[in-house]
Design brief:
dioxygenase; 3-stranded antiparallel β-sheet; Jelly Rolls; 13 strands; 182 residues; mainly beta; 8% helix; 7-stranded mixed β-sheet; Cysteine dioxygenase; CDO_1
Length: 182
């Protein structure tokens, strides 16, 4: 398979393929930050979910992280997730959920520029954090789109179901009423 240099090439390859080939397609990514300029959007309050493309089979989301921003511990509602790090560094902590609802960290890894990661619920839960001193940009492929997921509230020690949405979609800022991140 040829390298994929643009979002259009990526969307076309994913659209003409099945989920079984998504890993191979993602491994051929060679995306430069410049091809994503129209989707970059930042907030000092939280990481930003910038929707790029959504179909019945997959969705692409560009996450923009300021230094230190992180997700809560969360699942993927039975779907698969591939991540491609475009710039910066992400620390991923994976967790095991015990039958009694407790969560326990089971491993930490660093993901740097141009590296990829994969997770699904069989692997476990995870938490992502921008571990660099500057901004981080990561591209996420979900097969199928994730409409809601559960996240672990570390203060109450309970799981909370959350409907997901985008902060922007195809470069357009959405109403603050529709914005919801985990």
């Amino acid at each position: 398979m040829k390298p994929i240099f643009t979002l259009n090439e990526l969307i076309n390859a994913l659209s003409q393929s099945s989920k079984d080939n998504y890993k191979t397609i993602f491994k051929n990514l060679v995306l430069d930050k410049n091809v994503l300029d129209e989707y970059l959007n930042w907030s000092t309050k939280k990481y930003v979910r910038n929707g790029i493309y959504k179909s019945d089979n997959f969705e692409l989301i560009l996450l923009c992280w300021e230094a230190g921003q992180e997700t809560p511990i969360h699942c993927h509602s039975g779907e698969e997730c591939w991540m491609y790090l475009i710039e910066g560094e992400i620390e991923e902590v994976q967790y095991h959920k015990h039958e009694n609802g407790d969560v326990e960290a089971k491993g930490i890894r660093k993901i740097a520029n141009q590296q990829q990661a994969y997770i699904n619920d069989a692997i476990g839960l995870h938490k992502l954090k921008n571990n660099s001193k500057g901004r981080t940009i990561s591209l996420h492929l979900y097969a199928k789109p994730i409409e809601s997921c559960s996240y672990f509230d570390e203060q109450s020690k309970t799981f909370i179901k959350k409907n997901l949405s985008y902060d922007t979609y195809k470069g357009e800022i959405l109403s603050s009423k529709t914005v919801s991140s985990i």
